[in-house]
Structure formats: structure tokens, C-alpha cells
Amino acid sequence: AHCQYFGVEQHDENSLIPIIERECEKGSVIHSDEWPAYNNLNAIGYHHLTVNHQRHYVDPGTGAHTQAIE
């Protein structure tokens, strides 16, 4: 697994998606929380897995987590 971190001033889709498209190959698996800026990742060619931190730290159905970046 490969994890990258980028500091950004804006946390919206228009700011985050171009970074993802520049740094991640299409078809990559991306784990995130349910932040709305990531909602279209599946539609643009990524395999997006989410975890709802109010329910779990690791999604029991998919294994999705964000522990590698926190």
C-alpha cells in the first residue's frame, strides 16, 4: 500500500480531485471518510471505499479504514 499526504487550503471537490487525478492511477483503491468532496471518485475511475467514523474505525463489510493516514 502507498499512502501520500498533501496539505491543502481548500477541502472541496474542486481542490482535492485534481490532486488525486495527478497523483493516483485510475483504478486505484482510495480509502476515505465520508467527506462529500470524495463522492465522485467511483464515477471518475477510482475504487473508492469509505468508512463512517461514527459507526466504525474499520468498515466490517469492506475493510475500509483511514488509520494509515491518522
From TrEMBL:
Residues 5-70 form the ISXO2-like transposase domain. It comes from the Eukaryota. This is ISXO2-like transposase domain-containing protein. It comes from Octopus bimaculoides.
